[in-house]
Design a protein that fits this description.
It catalyses: propanoyl-CoA + hydrogencarbonate + ATP = (S)-methylmalonyl-CoA + ADP + phosphate + H(+); butanoyl-CoA + hydrogencarbonate + ATP = (2S)-ethylmalonyl-CoA + ADP + phosphate + H(+). The chain has 19 helices and 36 strands. The protein is α+β, with helices and mostly antiparallel strands. The longest helix is centred in the C-terminal third of the chain and has 22 residues.
C-alpha cells in the first residue's frame, strides 16, 4: 500500500473508539476539506462555516451542515469569533477545529467554550498564546535550552526604535509580526531606509491579517535552510488535581527551503541535508519545547539551519500546517485523526522507536499566481477547466476547489497541494514531474512552470538548496523553461503535427453518408512556424497515424492518438514520451502549447500564408511609460500623491493589498501626476 494514503488497516482499528458526534471546522479551502475527509472515516458529522462568496465552495458541499458567518473579508467571516460562537451553539457541535489566527486572537472565547463543554481540536489556550506570540515563544525556547536566533526579544514601538535596534543587532535584520505566519508581516532590511519601510508595511500587514501589529526584530541568517520538525504530544490532565504527565514524539523533519516572499513553494520529507545525529538533536529540542508549554496536539517547530548544520529555533506553529501531507506519507500516520484522538483524551498509540522514515515525499504548492512576476503575483478568475492528475501513480492532491470555482482577491491564492511519494527521492521527483505535466488548470494563471523547473534543476536534484534558491538560480526573474536545440525541434514538430492533424480532421464528415466530390490524396505539407523571434520552415508528411516532420534538416517521427478534444495529449517523439496541453488556437495560426511545464506561443502558417503575412500591418504596442498599472488585482489601501504633484523615479505612488500582502507601487520615471 502507498504510505502517501494513510494505512487504513492500521487506522480503522481505532475509528470505532468514541470521540465526538459533531465537529465544527472554522476554516476554508483545502485544509477544511482535509479535516472533513478524516471525520467522515471516523464517523464524525461535520459543520462548515463560510463567507457569502464561498457559499458554493467545496468544503461547504462536503460538510454535513454549513452556516454563513458573514461577508467576504476574513475579518468579517472566518475571523468573526462572535458569529462562530453562535454557530457552535446553534449546531450543538461538541468540538471545534479553528485556524491559528482565530486561536491567537480569541483566547478568552476559547476558554469560555471549554467551560461550556466544547472541545478544541488542538493544544490548550496557554500553548496557543505562548507559541502564537513570537516574542514569548522565543523566551520560552531559550528557557527550554532550545537554540535561538540573536535579536531583540521585546516589542518594537516605532520606526525610529526599529532603526536603533537594527543598528545594534547589525544588518541584515528580519522584521516580523509577533503574531504572524505564512510569510505575512515579514520584511528583510539591509539598511535604515529599508528598516523604516519594513516596519510600516509589516505592522500594516500584521494588523490586517492577525489583528495584532506588534513586531520583533532579529538577525537575518543569510543563505539558510528552512527545516521543521513535526511533533505530536499529549498531556494527561485532571481538572481537580491539576497534575500533568506527558508523552511527546517527533515525527521527523520537513525540508521547506524553496520559498518566495518568505512563503514556502516546495517541501519534502525527509531532508537531504540532515544526518541522523542532527535530526535527533533537532527532534529532541522540538520535544523539549513542546513539553515546556505542555503542548497537547500535533504541531510544528521550525528551525533555520546554516551550512555548518547549526540550527536555530524560528517559531512553533500550533496548527495542522499546509505541508503536513509529506509527514503523513513517510510515517503512515493520519495527523488529523491523531489530533482528534488527543483532544478527546486518548493516549498516543506510538513510541518514538515506532517512528521511522519510509520512502520519500515531495509537495508542490500550486498557486493561482503569475510566476513571471516576482516569482508569483496573484491571479484571479474562474477555473474554466480543472483536472487533477490522480491517474498518475502515487499522487495525492489536497484541494478545496473544483472546475467552476472562483479564485478571488479575498483569500490565499492556493489551488492545491500536489504530493508525490516514492521509495526514494529520485522516484518521488520523477512522479512529481509527470504529475505537473498532467495537471490541467485553465482560467487563471498558475505556477506549474516554476514548480517543474525547480524540481528538475540540477541544484535541487543534488540537494544544494537554501531559502535563497529562487533569487540565486533566477537573478533576473523566472523566464520559463529554456529549450535545448533538441527540445525546440520536438516542440516545433509537435506543433506542426497538431496543425496537420486538425486540418485532416476538419475534412472528415462524421455521421453522414456524404461522399467528397474529389478525394484528397494530400500527404505532405510545407509550413512556417514562428517561435519567439525565430521563424522555422517545417515539412510534414503523413504515415498512418504518425507524422514524419523535418526541422533544421533533421527528421523526427511524431506519434499520438490525436484526440484533439482532450485537454491532455500524449505524444511520442522519436521514442520519447511527452504530455502536452494545447491551451488555445485561432484562425490566424496562433496557438499556445504547454510543453515541459512552460506555455509557448507559436504561429503556424502554410508556406504561402507565411509569404503573404509580411503585408499585414503590425499592431502598435501601447505606450505605458506614463502609466502606473497594478501588476495584479487587489485593493488600493493608500494613495501617497495627488494630481499635480511632481514625483521622482522610485517614489511611492500607492499601496495595493492583494490576498493580505501589501505592495508598494512606485513611479518608473520622474514626472507630474
Amino acid at each position: 500500500k502507498n504510505l502517501c494514503f494513510v494505512h487504513l488497516s492500521r487506522s480503522l482499528l481505532f475509528f470505532s473508539l468514541q470521540t465526538f458526534e459533531k465537529l465544527l471546522i472554522a476554516n476554508r479551502g483545502e485544509i477544511a476539506c482535509r479535516v472533513i475527509k478524516t471525520c467522515k472515516k471516523m464517523g464524525i458529522k461535520t459543520v462548515a462555516i463560510h463567507s457569502d462568496v464561498d457559499a458554493n465552495a467545496v468544503h461547504v458541499k462536503m460538510a454535513d451542515e454549513a452556516v454563513c458567518v458573514g461577508p467576504a473579508p476574513t475579518s468579517k467571516s472566518y475571523l468573526n469569533m462572535d458569529a462562530i460562537m453562535e454557530v457552535i451553539k446553534k449546531t450543538r457541535a461538541q468540538a471545534v477545529s479553528l485556524n491559528e489566527s482565530i486561536c491567537c486572537s480569541f483566547i478568552s472565547s476559547l476558554s469560555l467554550q471549554a467551560s461550556e463543554g466544547v472541545t478544541f481540536i488542538g493544544p490548550d489556550t496557554h500553548a496557543i498564546q505562548a507559541m502564537g506570540d513570537k516574542i514569548e515563544s522565543k523566551l520560552l525556547a531559550k528557557n527550554a535550552k532550545v537554540n535561538t536566533i540573536p535579536g531583540f526579544d521585546g516589542v518594537v514601538k516605532d520606526a525610529d526604535e526599529a532603526v536603533r535596534i537594527a543598528r545594534e543587532i547589525g544588518y541584515p535584520v528580519m522584521i516580523k509580526a509577533s503574531a504572524g505566519g505564512g510569510g505575512k508581516g515579514m520584511r528583510i532590511a539591509w539598511d535604515d531606509e529599508e528598516t523604516r519601510e519594513g516596519f510600516r508595511f509589516s505592522s500594516q500587514e500584521a494588523a490586517s491579517s492577525f489583528g495584532d501589529d506588534r513586531l520583533l526584530i532579529e538577525k537575518f541568517i543569510d543563505n539558510p535552510r528552512h527545516i521543521e520538525i513535526q511533533v505530536c504530544s499529549i498531556y494527561y490532565y485532571y481538572l481537580v488535581l491539576a497534575d500533568k504527565h506527558g508523552n511527546a514524539l517527533w515525527l521527523n523533519e520537513r525540508e521547506c527551503s524553496i520559498q518566495r516572499r518568505n512563503q514556502k513553494v516546495v517541501e519534502e520529507a525527509p531532508s537531504t541535508f540532515l544526518d541522523p545525529e542532527t535530526r535527533r538533536a533537532m527532534g529532541e529540542q522540538a520535544v523539549a519545547l513542546a513539553k515546556a508549554v505542555k503542548y497537547s496536539s500535533a504541531g510544528t517547530v521550525e528551525f533555520l539551519v546554516d551550512s555548518s548544520k547549526n540550527f536555530y529555533f524560528l517559531e512553533m506553529n500550533t496548527r495542522l500546517q499546509v505541508e503536513h501531507p509529506v509527514t503523513e506519507c513517510i510515517t503512515g500516520l493520519d495527523l488529523v485523526q491523531e489530533m482528534i484522538r488527543v483532544a478527546k483524551g486518548y493516549p498516543l498509540r506510538h513510541k518514538q522507536a515506532d517512528i521511522a522514515i519510509n520512502g520519500w515525499a515531495v509537495e508542490c504548492r500550486v498557486y493561482a499566481e503569475d510566476p513571471y512576476k516576482s516569482f508569483g503575483l496573484p491571479s484571479i478568475g474562474k477555473l474554466s477547466q480543472y483536472q487533477e492528475p490522480l491517474h498518475v501513480p502515487s499522487v495525492r492532491v489536497d484541494s478545496g476547489i473544483q472546475q467552476g470555482s472562483d479564485i478571488s482577491i479575498y483569500y490565499d491564492p492556493m489551488i492545491s497541494k500536489l504530493i508525490t511519494y516514492g521509495s526514494n527521492r529520485v522516484e518521488a521527483l520523477k512522479r512529481m514531474e509527470e504529475a505537473l505535466d498532467n495537471y490541467v488548470i485553465r482560467g487563471v494563471a498558475h505556477n506549474i512552470s516554476l514548480l517543474r523547473e525547480v524540481i528538475i534543476h540540477p541544484r535541487f536534484v543534488q540537494g544544494d538548496i537554501s531559502t535563497k534558491f529562487l533569487p540565486e538560480v533566477y537573478p533576473d526573474g523566472f523566464k520559463g523553461h529554456k529549450l535545448t536545440d533538441l527540445e525546440r525541434r520536438e516542440l516545433l514538430a509537435t506543433a506542426a503535427s497538431l496543425y496537420v492533424a486538425e486540418q485532416l480532421r476538419s475534412q472528415r464528415f462524421l455521421g453522414t453518408p456524404r461522399i467528397p466530390i474529389a478525394k484528397s490524396k494530400r500527404s505532405s505539407w510545407e509550413l512556417s512556424v514562428r517561435l519567439g523571434d525565430g521563424i522555422y520552415p517545417v515539412a510534414v508528411s503523413k504515415d498512418g497515424s504518425s507524422f514524419s516532420v523535418e526541422v533544421d534538416g533533421m527528421k523526427l517521427n511524431v506519434t499520438s492518438e490525436w484526440n484533439l478534444a482532450s485537454p491532455l495529449l500524449s505524444v511520442t517523439i522519436d521514442g520519447t514520451q511527452r504530455t502536452i496541453q494545447r491551451l488555445s488556437r485561432n484562425a490566424s495560426g496562433d496557438t499556445s502549447i504547454q510543453f515541459l511545464g512552460t506555455v509557448y506561443k507559436l504561429q503556424i502558417l502554410t508556406k504561402v500564408a507565411a509569404e503573404l503575412s509580411k503585408y499585414m500591418p503590425e499592431k502598435a504596442a501601447e505606450d505605458t511609460s506614463s502609466i502606473l498599472r497594478s501588476p495584479m488585482p487587489g485593493a488600493v489601501v493608500a494613495v501617497s500623491v495627488k494630481a499635480g504633484d511632481t514625483v521622482s523615479e522610485g517614489q511611492e505612488i500607492c499601496v495595493i493589498e492583494a490576498m493580505k500582502m501589501q505592495n508598494s507601487m512606485i513611479a518608473a520615471k520622474t514626472g507630474k501626476v
